[in-house]
Design brief:
By secondary structure, this protein is α/β, with parallel strands linked by helices. It has a single domain, classed as 3-Layer(aba) Sandwich (Rossmann fold), CATH 3.40.50.300. 34% of the residues lie in helices and 16% in strands. The chain contains eleven helices and eight strands. Helix 10 links the parallel strand 6 and strand 7. Helix 2 crosses helix 3. The chain starts with 7 loop residues before the first helix and ends in a 19-residue tail after the last helix. The relative contact order is 0.21.
């Protein structure tokens, strides 16, 4: 029998050295929110395996557990989703099911073991993520969710191989770029920042991950072809784009609304 892995909240400690960096980042987000609304943040990286999903999850844990903010993590890395694994959740009935199949958003929201921290998993496997992210429906969905959550953290695919995060950056308030120390070439990071800056001016900052093999570190804004195909699924696990359902999203309301009790305003 395979050994059961710990969920990410089981090895997270508020006393860990890296936890202070996430608290600093939340302070930065709050300050940004004084000038403009910052309730949805996209996490991306230049390349694969830089730790963006882990950083996104740990920030969500810090936000909910230590700051008491009602927080939602959305897994939009449809090609290689991992958020459901971190929190030991079922992947299905998630983002693709909402946007493609008309599944109710409130029903798709999954509770974690951490109070005030919810997750929308990636959902049923879908072959062409860019079609979803280029549609306006995900923007409408995120705008709806802002009424129920103080902070929405969107985990996206790496920036250099695919266009998904660039499309999503137009639909979120800010972007955080995660860089793995000692792994990603500096020129590649500069190129990734340049792509984001040319599209919009939303970079909140850069997180240098794996510094000294353990500590993520937050830098302010001024700091500065491999195989990335969708994960495979069975034929009946594939979903197809339904433009009619996507276009109707603008006028849809939650059938099951998220719990909005004790919600704090991050700004």
């Amino acid at each position: 029998m395979a050994k059961k892995t710990l969920s990410i909240d089981q090895f997270y400690s508020p006393d860990a050295p890296f936890a202070n960096e996430f608290r600093r980042l939340l302070v930065k987000i709050k300050k940004e929110g004084a000038n403009q609304e910052v309730k949805s943040i996209l996490f991306t990286s230049a390349m694969l395996s830089e730790g963006k999903s882990t950083i996104c999850s740990l920030l969500g844990l810090t936000s909910a557990r230590q700051n008491g903010l009602k927080t939602l993590i959305v897994d939009s890395d449809l090609r290689r989703p991992s958020i459901h694994k971190f929190f030991h959740l079922e992947r299905t009935k998630g983002l693709t099911d909402i946007l493609v199949d008309g599944f109710d958003t409130g029903e798709a929201i999954k509770k974690t073991k951490v109070e005030k921290l919810d997750v929308i998993t990636s959902g049923t496997n879908y072959e062409h993520p860019a079609e979803i992210f280029d549609a306006e429906s995900i923007g409408y969905m995120l705008d709806e969710l802002k009424f129920y959550y103080d902070l929405i953290l969107v985990d996206s695919a790496p920036l250099m191989p695919v266009s998904d995060p660039l499309l999503l950056s137009d639909k979120t308030d800010k972007v955080i770029l995660v860089v793995k120390a000692g792994s990603t070439d500096r020129e590649v990071v500069k190129q990734a920042k340049g792509i984001l800056n040319n599209s919009n001016d939303k970079i909140l900052g850069v997180i240098l991950n794996n510094l000294n093999n353990s500590l993520p570190y937050y830098y302010d804004y001024q700091y500065y072809g491999y195989d990335y195909s969708p994960s495979k699924g069975t034929a009946d696990s594939q979903v197809k784009l339904n433009p009619d359902k996507i276009n109707k999203r603008k006028n849809r309301k939650f059938n099951k609304k998220p719990d909005s009790n004790q919600t704090k305003n991050i700004s």
